[in-house]
Design goal:
Layout: H1 3-31, E1 35-41, E2 47-50, E3 57-60, E4 65-70, E5 74-81, E6 84-92, E7 98-100, E8 103-105, E9 107-111
Parallel strand pairs: 1-9
Antiparallel strand pairs: 1-4, 2-3, 5-6, 7-8
Amino acid sequence: MGSKGVSAIFLVSLMAILFLTGAAASAMAVGGPPYEGVIKNHTRHDISIPSDNSGATLVVPAKGWIEYVSWSPNFQMMGYVHGNPFYCQKIQVNPKNYTFMCRSYDFVAEIVAEEKPPKKTKPIRKKRQKKEVKNKAVL
């Protein structure tokens, strides 16, 4: 490759870097400030939640809670137990609208287990008793 080919590749890569950093900066400006909230877990399972911000997985302990930071005002929270989907909720942020543990938060998400309907039981059938008929002899 000549010097023209190398300089063309350099210019294309420089333009791509500038474009991508500009898109990331505009996405951060649109997202707004970080929103801080609380995720409460009312179940007896440890719930794993993938973080949209860092790509890490957060674990909400059973009957516990964690603080969660989001950069978008509306997002979908998916919870998993042992790798299987367990809970899904759409979160809408209302800045400083929720109070928990004497602090103001932008959102509160509560994970509650679904109540299972009571099991239907079969009615108990009583065994029929045969009636004994006494034959009265007519004399």
